[in-house]
Amino acid sequence: MKRTIINFIITISVVGLMIATIFYIRKKPFFEVNWFSSNYLNTVLVYQTTTLVLSFVIILITGLQTKFESFKLLSITKMDGPVKPEPWIGLTKNNKDS
Questions:
Q1: Is residue 91 within 8 Å of residue 85, measured between CB atoms?
Q2: Vertex 10, ends 70 and 18: CA angle to 5°?
Q3: Which pLDDT belongs to residue 84?
């Protein structure tokens, strides 16, 4: 239980820092790009690149916390888990479509 609380605190802290970083880079980007003639396109490219790096960081931190067991959930090739009934979204035991 203690490890779960510590991992939860670490995750909340990292996500909070990433949200603050996303708000910060809208005003002061970490790097400049002048590939396009439009300043808007250059700004969007910098923003998208930075958020992509931040998403890889959160995936890495989640992997470190779970000893990379959570990466099995991201596997595209192994989607052979059982389908459990979820009536509130339309998945029932007698559903002939699934």
A1: yes
A2: 90
A3: 67
Q: Note the pLDDT tens digit of each residue in 56-69.
A: 988 888 888 877 77
Q: From its phi and psi, is residue 63 left (phi > 0), alpha (psi between -120 and 50) or beta?
A: alpha
Distances from the Cα of 37 to the Cαs of 29, 31, 32, in angstroms? 18, 17, 13
Rounded to 10 degrees, the C-alpha dihedral 14/20/26/29 comes to -60
Of the CA atoms within 13 Å of residue 18, those in its CB half-sphere come to 17
List helix spans (H) across 1-98.
Answer: 2-27, 39-65
